[in-house]
Amino acid sequence: VTQVINCFLCYRMASGTLALSLGQKLFSIFAFATCGGYSGQLWVSVDCQLDKASSNLSIGIDFAYPFRLHQVSFEAPLCEGRRRERLFLIGDYTSSAEFFVTIAVFAFLYSFMATIVYIFFQKKYRENNRGPLIVRTVVFSFMWLVSSSAWAKALSDIKVATDPDEVQELMSACKVMTNKCGSVQGPRWSGLNTSVVFGFLNFVLWAGNIWFVFKETGWHKGGPSVTLMGGA
């Protein structure tokens, strides 16, 4: 009876760990795909009241990952004949964006490799189920928290820097009271907002998996001896 109970508990706990592993992989993919694959666009208009021919009512500005906004340029009319000025957006958020995507990619690769080891090399896995497993899981949990927090702050700053009303402040023509500047369309943020959500969900998954990894290190004294996949 005891062996049956132990086998049942082993199966339940292993299934739970494999479910966590699947969640880690999927959420990592969603995190770097929604962030790394993003491209956005905003539109502003300049209506030159004293020189209608110089007006431009559809100025499109494109930007994308890794959000080097200071390299994103666009042209705007000066409302002085056909003269135009070349302007750049403000800010460089490359470090936060690339850090977030890098953690997502490495977390996916580590989880994928750990799953292969767990399934095909269980004997070797059981011989080395000590401290390094829980250390790696704790490190990834911490890195997910740091990268997600940094990316959430960067995204907030990106939204400000690409706000059409803020972009109008960069244009000389918009500083002249006789001209009319307006916002035609702002960027869509659903994809990037989703990436932040997946980032923190990954932190929750990895932090929650610390308990399972702790139980397989041998430091946990209670309960049946069960081998689980750490950080997979």
Automatic annotation (TrEMBL):
Location in or out of the cell: Membrane
InterPro entries assigned to the protein according to its UniProt record, in alphabetical order: Marvel, Synaptophysin/porin
One Gene Ontology term, aspect cellular component: synaptic vesicle membrane
Record-annotated MARVEL domain positions: 12-218
Keywords: Glycoprotein, Membrane, Transmembrane, Transmembrane helix
Coiled-coil intervals, chain numbering: none
Transmembrane segments: 99-121, 133-152, 196-214
Membrane topology: Multi-pass membrane protein
PANTHER family, A to Z: SYNAPTOPHYSIN (PTHR10306), SYNAPTOPORIN (PTHR10306:SF16)
Entry's family note: Belongs to the synaptophysin/synaptobrevin family.
Protein name: MARVEL domain-containing protein
Organism: Hucho hucho (huchen)
